[in-house]
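Researcher: Please generate the 3D structure of the following complex. Treat every line as part of one assembly.
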Amino acid sequence: MTRHTLSVLVENKFGVLARIASLFSARGYNISSLAVSETMDQAISCMTIVVEVSEEKILEQIKKQLNKLIDVITVTDFTKKEHVNRELLLVKINYSTKEKARIEALLDKYQGKIIQHKSESAIIEVIGEQQQIKQLLEALDQFGIKELVRTGKIAMA
Amino acid sequence: MKLSGAQILIECLKREGVELLFGYPGGQVLPIFDKLYDSGIRFILPRHEQAAAHAADGYARATGKVGVCLATSGPGATNLTTGIANAYMDSIAMVAITGQVKSHLIGNDAFQEADVTGITRPITKHNYLVKDVKDLARIIREAFYIASTGRPGPVLIDIPSDIQLQETEFIWPETVQLRSYKPTYFGHPGQIKKAIKLIAGAKKPLLYIGGGVISSGAAAEIKTLAEKIQAPVTWTLMGIGGFPATHKLGLGMLGMHGTAYANHAIMDADVIIAIGARFDDRVTGRIDAFAPGAKVIHIDIDPASISKNIRVDIPIVGDVKNIVGEMLEQMKKFPDTSEWLKHIEALKKKYPLKYNKEGDKVKPQYVVEQIYEATKGEAIITTEVGQNQMWAAQWYQYDYPRSFISSGGLGTMGFGFPAAMGVKLGCPGKAVFDIAGDGSIQMNIQELATCVCNKINVKVAILNNGYLGMVRQWQELFYKKRYSHTCISGPDFVKLAESYGAVGIRVTKKEEVRPAIEKALAIEGTVFIDFKVEPEENVYPMVPAGEAINRMIEGLA
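Model: Done. Output below.
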């Protein structure tokens, strides 16, 4: 399986997200993550969709089928394009003062910060590429991860 | 001028050139029906909403115009869905209009509420829920434009009943502006040049044509191309009529129940020119064994059809008629195919389409042949789905586009009879036959009332074998003759037709076949002919599912 990032500009109308989602489910494509927001033009939304495919042919079909939707304006495949991408992670971990130094060292390395702190837990915010986030999560695992939530990737070329 | 939503709808339909509407009234379309009453638009009331959709579909297929159907909310709309899905799979231009509960009740599980835009999302080219009466005229204009351009398809407009009553200034949008929808009509010049070069050097070229040839109106261009490059032509079920069946370069239909010589020919070809066809699994058989030695040129208006199933060497996206026309203009060198055509002739001799003609039992193939002869090939044939459909495809020779109307992609039993109504209303000068099975005809048999009431002169030839024949055939061949629930009874079709006020004729002997057809044709009105045919006759040749298409079961002869 390979991962590909698609940036899809769509008409900002009700039901468009459902059209995209139902296209993926009807044709059996896998969405790894999906991030949606308005663009500078309020009539247009941008969806960053990360898909997992087993072969190139399926990626081609996904792009073509997306393009067929009347409300889809453009589909850009970032796979072979130079681009930047980021994801925001919120993660709640077990926190104790004796681990404070080690946790802060980790956060320094990944440019994360503690945004909420309670007696035995802390919520950390990190923005980074998916690979970095994955590494950080692996490193945080030793302290015990209680909960995590991610926005899904957004990308720009 | 201020008009209500319902008035705007009627006004827009007229401006779109709609002369005929198939629909069924109900609570949430009352305002529309009130305005229809004296609108001047011809309205046909079928006895089931599904039939309204199929009739609109049949009308669209026969005329090339947009078919329009109308139903109320909830069950009215859900009854349309099979017909909408059917049109979607076969790329038929249709606009379906449904009533919806009042705007403020949407989402409240109101009486006769269903999420119709949600339900129809995967079976429409596009759909709309109208939220503001000011958008209505624009939406209707867009719906007709989207349905009939590019790769055609059904578009649904869901109109809440309060919107039908609200008034607004009526402004007819002269043009349609959709920044995200711009179908490609003209082929890429570089790709066209490459295709011409490949064809010029071909030794064994073959045209494989589909429904795109019909919807694009490219039959004349296809004929010229085939004759110029002296290539044999085979067609899909949807492509029937795209090339004259009686032409010497014609190979008949290919695929699961195609002619053996068409299937062998496409496996032997070195250049396949696929035009408005999509390499459906019923055509290719086992995909990795399909035409291994061939280079493929694929001309289609839908980029998503290209390289979906089969790797394509030269894709050309655009309108088939334009592209083939452009190729014809630029072609200077033509391949020498004399050896190839000799091979094709040998295949035709070696593997003729056949059935056992002995005995005095009524063979379904014989019935179809007799309908062909009696109508001199000038009728429009609709079909149901199953054995009747395949025999109708095999044994009637279709020389004209839009003369074979059949549910290809979805395979909808119950399609043929209501479709025939739409066909006849669209083409009143043509004889229209629905070739049916005794199973399929019972799925929309209530339309006898519509036909009689509206004096729709269609003939229904029921190939009555007492079985759901195609499934029975599979059970015979692949499930050890365990005929699980495929033996089906029916009414006395003659009496049934008579009870509706139509004419019924029963045929039990071979010698009665032709006179019955002649008699039916002479009657100005709806006729059911109940042909009691050989019960366990099979459709051959047949490619078992998942086999290469040249591995056919030939059957007896």
